[in-house]
Specification:
The complex is a heterodimer of chains A (449) and B (253). In chain A, 68% of the residues lie in helices and 4% in strands. In chain A, the strands form 3 sheets. A two-stranded antiparallel ribbon of chain A has the order 1-4. In chain A, strands 2-3 form a two-stranded antiparallel ribbon. In chain A, strands 5-6 form a two-stranded antiparallel sheet. Chain A starts with a helix and ends with a helix. Chain B has a two-stranded antiparallel ribbon with strand order 1-2. The relative contact order of chain B is 0.14. The termini of chain B are far apart. The chains are: A mainly alpha (449), B mainly alpha (253). The interface between A and B is large, with 68 and 62 residues.
């Protein structure tokens, strides 16, 4: 019966060879290759929960007076946007669960991408012929940072507003065209006009998700076309031969399992751990602020950098050439991303290796790359921690100003040091292995003799 | 239930209201022992002023000399500074912080009565949070206090000072702090915040000690920092563990 049906389908569509190819497609089986999948499944959850949220979100900055069930906000004036998120969190069925899951999924999505990127970088997986895959991946990360920021801003609560104010400050600080750019995006001076929210909304729920989706498809198609990379673990794994497990029966249950794990963790977090309780923050007005407002974790390095850069403006006479927020808010991320985009080329150009690579390096096999990677990572990580310095003061009593100075010094000293140490550790590990190999050979020879 | 709690707390705060009736002689002796070194004879204050920092509005605030004059600060300030453990300060130049109170109740009452007797000053206020409105309180708190104390009263950092978390402040102390403006905190007159508005603020601050955590585990009410920690150390760690369980570890053959 089933056989008949399958034959029927195959005769009409002729898909059997394609299907066979798909089912036999080989997947890598090392665990670190699953990090990208975690990001992919988080994205699926993000889209699913996001769609639910759009059913209730109202994209309007028209003000209303709240008369809903949440007592502390009754009688307050707020935008309809904020009011709708408040409703999602209080009266909409499963609204808060879905909203919190959506937010956790965003945090985890970007965390998974970052870990994935770290794996790709330190094992040299981006090398020829996979640079395109790598660049697309980087672009997904870059766009996701923006997407997350927009989501955080759309709720129009106190933190959203303060976050947007900082974003506006950074945009304006860009030399020459910053002021015009900001006026263009915000449709006037801060806090912008109604169009600004429409723009954010369209970008957040349609343009950027569609872009990320398209990039993901490209990314995965390129991965499939070039096949996966692999560690040189057994003699069977060479530059010319792919070793792995087939789609079916090997990979399918693993992927399904991982998907359920991701969905499970995200919904557990969404149901049990409170994230961004906008009803406690209250609505935003330009004349109010709260102490210690923070962006979500993936932008924490920018807030930290804004604090670490000493307070100065580059001015010519009365004309401000470069305003202060530019360095931390725009220059640092640009520099880091430009470096990451250029890296495969830099390595080829200065490392003198332009061969095809299907085999991965272990971090110790490429000490120079590992050192440069650690330097960059430390350089980003320090401002990231510095972003929490006020909370560190409140919680652990380490005075703020000395902390900032310590971070400033560390931001200059620690990255090269981390690189040097990484280089040295790699060399030591390599040397250790050489000794081990020599000892083995000697033992074998001794046995023969 | 909540009303009961509030009344209970008010009952606890009541002795403070009767402070003026404390033993001034005892207060005088204790003042000579603990306070005179800084506040001077008869609380007249010592030495010139110096800038200690700025609030978010960037108005420089001054810490008055070694210690300010206590003549005319009244029972209100004495009650606040003594029952929070702010006074006696260890040494000048420090921000007063909440500490265990070293005096027992008769000693406190004596000291408060003595300070109150140094000049004509305000009495210890008696806030009635149960008469205040929670929503008005939240709005006023966001407008006037959140810039320093954070919207949910979790405290934070401003140039030169640590606005403390408000979890330990009693109703009376909240009302007192508003009128005194300790350290870099601005002072709010009855014109700026009426007694009924103070009631609302007190009500909100007390609510904020355990607000509506409908989302689950509250992780501190300070937003993205603990959220990021949970995302990485709970969420991402669990998922990496899943990956390791599902995938294969490195082996060299």
């Amino acid at each position: 019966m089933i056989r008949k049906l399958v034959r029927f389908l195959d005769r009409r569509t002729g898909t059997a060879p394609l299907l066979r190819k798909t089912l036999r497609y080989l997947f890598p089986d090392h665990w670190s290759f699953l990090l990208g999948e975690v990001a992919l499944y988080s994205f699926v959850i993000l889209v699913a929960t996001g769609i639910y949220l759009t059913l209730f979100y109202e994209n309007s900055t028209a003000t209303v007076v709240y008369h809903g069930p949440y007592v502390p906000l009754q009688g307050q004036e707020m935008t309809q946007a904020y009011r709708s998120v408040l409703d999602i969190s209080t009266t909409v069925k499963a609204g808060l669960l879905i909203r919190q899951t959506h937010h956790w999924a965003a945090d985890i999505f970007i965390a998974a991408i970052v870990l994935h990127l770290i794996r790709i970088f330190f094992t040299g997986a981006y090398r020829k012929p996979r640079e395109l895959t790598y660049w697309i991946g980087l672009t997904i990360l870059l766009v996701s940072l923006l997407e997350g920021y927009l989501g955080y801003s759309l709720a129009d609560d106190l933190l959203s507003g303060m976050g947007l104010a900082i974003g506006y400050g950074v945009a304006v600080s860009i030399p020459f065209f910053g002021a015009n750019l900001a006026a263009l995006i915000w449709d006037g001076p801060f806090p912008g006009k109604h169009d600004f929210f429409s723009r954010m909304y369209v970008a957040h729920v349609f343009l950027i998700p569609a872009l990320i989706g398209a990039l993901l498809v490209l990314h995965l198609a390129l991965v499939a076309l070039r096949h996966h990379t692999q560690f040189r673990e057994t003699r069977r794994q060479t530059e010319r031969k792919v070793v792995g497990i087939p789609t079916f029966p090997g990979q399918t249950p693993r992927s399904l399992g991982l998907f359920f794990a991701v969905a499970g963790v995200l919904f557990l977090l969404g149901g049990l751990v409170q994230i961004n309780p906008i009803w406690l923050w209250g609505p935003y007005h330009t004349y109010i602020s709260t102490n210690g407002a923070q962006p979500d974790w993936y932008l924490g390095w920018l807030i930290g950098a804004l604090r670490l850069v000493p307070g100065f403006d580059l001015t010519i006479g009365h004309y401000t050439l470069v305003a202060n927020p530019f360095w931390g808010g725009a220059a640092l991320p640009s520099l880091v991303f430009i470096f990451l985009y250029l890296w495969p080329w830099l390595e080829r150009r200065f490392g003198g290796d332009s061969a095809y690579h299907n085999l991965l390096d272990r971090p110790r096999d490429a000490p120079m790359r590992t050192a440069i990677g650690m330097t960059t990572l430390t350089w980003v990580f320090l401002p990231f921690v510095a972003g929490s310095s006020d909370r560190i003061y409140v919680t652990f009593g380490l005075p703020y100003i000395p902390q900032i100075w310590a971070f400033r010094v560390l931001a200059v000293v620690a990255p090269p040091l981390a690189g040097l140490i990484a280089f040295w550790v790699c060399r030591e590990l390599q040397a250790g292995e050489r000794v081990e190999r020599r000892r083995k050979r000697a033992e074998e020879e001794a046995e023969l003799a | 239930m909540r009303r009961l709690l509030v009344t209970g707390l008010l009952a606890l705060a009541l002795p403070a209201a009767a402070a003026a009736a404390g033993d001034q002689q005892l207060g005088y002796r204790l003042f000579g022992q603990y306070c005179v070194a800084c506040h001077g004879v008869a609380g007249s204050g010592i030495a010139p002023a110096r800038v200690i920092g700025t609030g978010p509005q960037r108005v420089p605030r001054q810490q008055l000399g070694l210690a300010p004059s206590l003549q005319g600060v009244g029972a209100l300030a004495a009650d606040f500074y003594l029952r929070t453990g702010y006074m006696p300060l260890q040494h000048v130049g420090l921000q007063p912080r909440r500490k265990p109170v070293i005096f027992d109740e008769p000693q406190l009452e004596g000291l408060i009565a003595y300070v109150a007797s140094l000049g004509r000053g305000p009495k210890v206020p008696k806030p009635h949070p149960e008469r205040g409105s929670l929503s008005e309180g939240m709005q006023l708190f966001t407008d006037h206090c959140a810039g320093c104390h954070q919207v949910v009263g979790e405290g934070g950092y401003v140039t030169g000072a640590l606005p403390p978390p408000l979890k330990d402040a009693t109703s009376t102390q909240i009302a007192e702090a508003i009128r005194i403006g300790p350290y870099v905190m601005p002072r709010f007159s009855t014109k700026a915040l009426s007694p009924s508005q103070v009631n609302s603020i007190v009500r909100y601050v007390r609510y904020a000690k355990s607000p509506d955590d409908r989302g689950g585990w509250a992780i501190g009410h300070v937003g993205p920092i603990p959220e990021g920690l949970v995302a990485w150390f709970l969420g991402m760690t669990a998922l990496v563990a899943c990956c390791i369980a599902i995938g294969r570890r490195f082996r060299r053959g």
